Amino acid sequence: MLDTPANRPDLPPEIARRRTFAIISHPDAGKTTLTEKFLLFGGAIQMAGQVRAKGEARRTRSDFMQMEKDRGISVSASAMSFDYSDFRFNLVDTPGHSDFSEDTYRTLTAVDAAVMVIDGAKGVESQTRKLFEVCRLRDLPILTFCNKMDRESRDTFDIIDEIQENLAIDVTPASWPIGVGSEFLGCYDILRDRLELMDRKDRNKVAESIRIAGLEDPKLAEHVPPHLLDKLVEEVEMARELLPKLDPQSVLEGHMTPIWFGSAINSFGVKELMDGIATYGPVPQVQSAEPRQIAPEEKKVAGFVFKVQANMDPKHRDRVAFVRMASGHFERGMKLTHVRSKKPMTISNPVMFLASDRELAEEAWAGDIIGIPNHGQLRIGDTLTEGEALRVTGIPSFAPELLQSCRAGDPMKAKHLEKALMQFAEEGAAKVFKPSFGSGFIVGVVGPLQFEVLGSRIEMEYGLPVRFDSSQFTSARWVKGERQAVDKFVNANKQHIATDHDGDVVYLTRLQWDIDRVERDYPDVTLSATKEMM
Ligand code: GDP
């Protein structure tokens, strides 16, 4: 059954109308363009181009942002809310670059579905595949948008086959493209028997939609030239025979993805995709937590931090914790319990991100994302409740794949550097290890670009030039086991031991051989490549 508000009387209507999702794609496939069109049709912006223009004005503020611009990557993730017909969409932006996959992973723990954008000429690309795999770990429902159909693109069956085979998911066409490249006319809406015609002259205009009584309707011939019509009828008949039919339940379980064809830049196919998200996308889902799950319709408010962003406003050293509401109806000024510290927190100035402006969030429902400005109390993985000691689970921290030592250019500034590094560690931008020997820090990241970003941010935000040097270590593992066994291991391996920003013990490794040796010689301790954030 479809998750429409009418079909979910068990949920408060405000929750049933929420759709919280992220867009996953390979760089250049059209994620920014599609986001902009979503905001345009969601009434959050008046004119296409605004997102970028605003982004640019903001970016000029700093070198770091300059770097982001130069490289054409989006380093930070944020969330945007807008209404579309009866629905409230919360679109959570994911960083597109593979160097930031850990951040992306955590962002995907805060959404209920993903929209996968692929380029019609390129099909499934490397980054799409990686992000898809992350979605699959959680069986996230995925809706697919095949973009740039106004350009020469691949054969429709080829595209669908490639997704099916490469990603091992059933694909069902929601629309079917008519013509390719300069001959691209629009799509036949398979789900609603409509003809959607693209307007090439006005890029922000929504396509003309013509109701059609099936493929035999003579009206089709009035709009589609004979050679394209023959091909369309033949292909759609074949698709109906060979490809699986849309099964909403299978979509919700993440086993089937409906695919829409379109051209984001021409605003084409975007509304159909939005209707699809509303109709086939999931309502806010149950959240896994200890000692019990959290259901969205629970009266009491609960939420968890999936991202922390520091220094969003360089003038104020504030941090914003992005919180996904897991249950209840939040109102501004509420007092919530910060479960990790057991301390109460009055949430007096939460923000919601409407397009690229911040606004005070007077209220929020399960499914919404709010930003909570704070001075560092809130960390990734933290849970907020109305008192119950619940801890949201499933937000991992991964062992870094690259390590470098980090020193302040000015040795007198070591304390300063420690403060800066700890902050970035809490933000989740890097792993910071303090070795039990010598001075200095070891910084761990997933991709090399992160060192550069970190270096420029420390310099810019703390006025502290830093040096990264190669380290003899290549990876790190968290050490787990009985206290005594861990102590014995630590004492015998001091040259490899460090602590992370939470004070947890890690073992720094040079080669796989180090890990093998520990496993052989210390059967009582375990080396782990992940740690739950809490
Ligand atoms: P992102 O890297 O995934 O965010 O991609 P962008 O949205 O920045 O788009 C990458 C490039 O593709 C830009 O030059 C866009 O103008 C262009 N683009 C986006 N959508 C379309 C489309 O539907 N057709 C064509 N021809 N170009 C598009």
TrEMBL record:
Entries under InterPro entries matching the protein: EF-G-like_DII, EFG_III/V, G_TR_CS, P-loop_NTPase, PrfC, RF3_C, RF3_dom_3_sf, RF3_GTP-bd
Positions with a binding annotation for GTP: 25-32, 93-97, 147-150
Entry GO MF terms: GTP binding; GTPase activity; guanosine tetraphosphate binding; translation release factor activity, codon nonspecific; translation release factor activity, codon specific
Ranges of residues in domain Tr-type G: 16-285
Subcellular compartments: Cytoplasm
Key words of the record: Cytoplasm, GTP-binding, Nucleotide-binding, Protein biosynthesis
Pfam families per UniProt: EF-G_D2, GTP_EFTU, RF3_C
One cellular-component annotation, GO: cytosol
One example of a Gene Ontology biological process annotation: regulation of translational termination
Function: Increases the formation of ribosomal termination complexes and stimulates activities of RF-1 and RF-2. It binds guanine nucleotides and has strong preference for UGA stop codons. It may interact directly with the ribosome. The stimulation of RF-1 and RF-2 is significantly reduced by GTP and GDP, but not by GMP.
Family: Belongs to the TRAFAC class translation factor GTPase superfamily. Classic translation factor GTPase family. PrfC subfamily.
Record protein name field: Peptide chain release factor 3
Originating species: Pseudooceanicola batsensis (strain ATCC BAA-863 / DSM 15984 / KCTC 12145 / HTCC2597) (Oceanicola batsensis)
